[in-house]
Design brief:
The chain has one domain: AhpD-like. It is 62% helix and 0% strand. The chain contains seven helices and no strands. Helix 5 packs across helix 6 and helix 5 crosses helix 7. The model has no long low-confidence stretch (mean pLDDT 93).
């Protein structure tokens, strides 16, 4: 698959990417890196963004995640390797991503599970992460960014 357009290779796209990435730095302090990467991976799988799946698989590994846990994200409900907090985060991520598939959005049951395991700052970070990775997935899918070439840590140069 060939990319349609390089968003980073022009003034507007480059400026937007830097600011978009910098917004994620706020979240980095609120949630463990591995949780962020696994949630972003799950959302990216749902949205079919190959480039984002590549990014978050490799960043999860760089954050110390095992191959078993990374590989089982897509089947988290049928796996025994995730904590109850991680399961709540995955449920929130899925329901928050599949808005068109579920008219209710995030269920009360899922919200209660999230509130049981995460404090206010962590909840704000999770909700923001789900929104941000969904936006990133749409950027990647629209321009057809292919997975496979990402090197962990590349985004560090974008931070202020």
């Amino acid at each position: 698959m060939e990319s349609r357009f390089d968003l980073m290779d022009n003034e507007v796209g480059g400026k937007f990417a830097k600011r978009f990435f910098n917004a994620s730095l706020v979240l980095a302090r609120a949630l463990p890196k591995s949780t962020q990467e696994l949630v972003a991976l799950r959302v990216s799988q749902i949205n079919g963004c190959g480039w984002c799946v590549d990014v978050h698989t490799k960043e999860a590994e760089a954050a110390g995640e095992t191959a078993v846990r990374i590989n089982l994200v897509a089947a988290w409900r049928e796996s025994s390797v995730f904590t109850e907090a991680e399961r709540a985060a995955f449920a929130l991520a899925e329901e928050g991503t599949r808005l068109a598939d579920a008219h209710h959005g995030v269920s009360d049951e899922t919200w209660a599970a999230v509130r049981e395991h995460f404090d206010d700052n962590e909840v704000a970070a999770l909700v923001s992460l789900v929104a941000q990775i969904n936006a990133a997935n749409r950027l990647g899918v629209i321009v057809r960014n292919a997975g496979g070439s990402y090197a962990p840590g590349v985004f560090a140069e974008l931070s202020d």
